[in-house]
Amino acid sequence: MASAFYSKFESFASVDGPGVRSVLFLCGCPFRCLYCHNPETWTTKGGKEITSEDAFKLLSKYKPYWKNNGGITISGGEPLLHMDFLIELFKLCKEKGISTCIDTSGAPFTKEEPFISKFNELLKYTDLFLMDIKAPNEELHQVITGKSNKNVLEMFDYLNEKNIPIWIRYVLVPKYTDSKEVLNQTKDFINTLGNVKRVEVLPYHPFALPKYEELGIEYPLKDINMPDKESLAYAKELLEFER
């Protein structure tokens, strides 16, 4: 039985997929996003190991709170670093008719083996993907995450080909992702995808600063303020939709 390390779980979450969700935050992530609000999930250090069966028991006991459209979401960190765990967990969920969702950056995606075969197996048991567009171009993506966006774009395209539903979230960060040029590039990319069911613009916030201080990590955006109302309204008007 596969296992993974997790940092925390939430029994009652309302922003991590449709309805009320129980969310497990797995450890490990190849990105180092400037505005990451879960730096404690970058590595497995401090995480707790859990098997797929125990994770199912932990999360599914909150099923009475989900009502008709809730379910289980696996977040991180980066869930796709734990493919065997995800497949086993979501297979258990589907046997019980539970809605499944993965909140992923897309960073580990590749069409090479063994990943792609496992990913295709995972798709059988996954109802929805939540994905961020960190930046619409390679240069800015490198600045924000420290990594290329090649794998991310490939995953967006692959899910579109397979017609797997996705929700997209876009973090509006002053001086980084709030220019009209970048916003229009983002809109143009989203318009190439036919499987997007929802786009949400999220305002950057520095609320994770205490976590960085506790971990002894310098917070890279300490001099960046939250976006103003006008900038946020413009971005929402341009990008947001639900269908």
UniProtKB/TrEMBL annotation:
Gene Ontology molecular functions: 4 iron, 4 sulfur cluster binding; [formate-C-acetyltransferase]-activating enzyme activity; lyase activity; metal ion binding
Subcellular compartments: Cytoplasm
Keywords: 4Fe-4S, Cytoplasm, Iron, Iron-sulfur, Lyase, Metal-binding, Oxidoreductase, Pyruvate, S-adenosyl-L-methionine
EC code: 1.97.1.4
Requisite cofactors: [4Fe-4S] cluster
SUPFAM superfamilies: Radical SAM enzymes (SSF102114)
Family: Belongs to the organic radical-activating enzymes family.
Role description: Activation of pyruvate formate-lyase under anaerobic conditions by generation of an organic free radical, using S-adenosylmethionine and reduced flavodoxin as cosubstrates to produce 5'-deoxy-adenosine.
Protein name (record): Pyruvate formate-lyase-activating enzyme
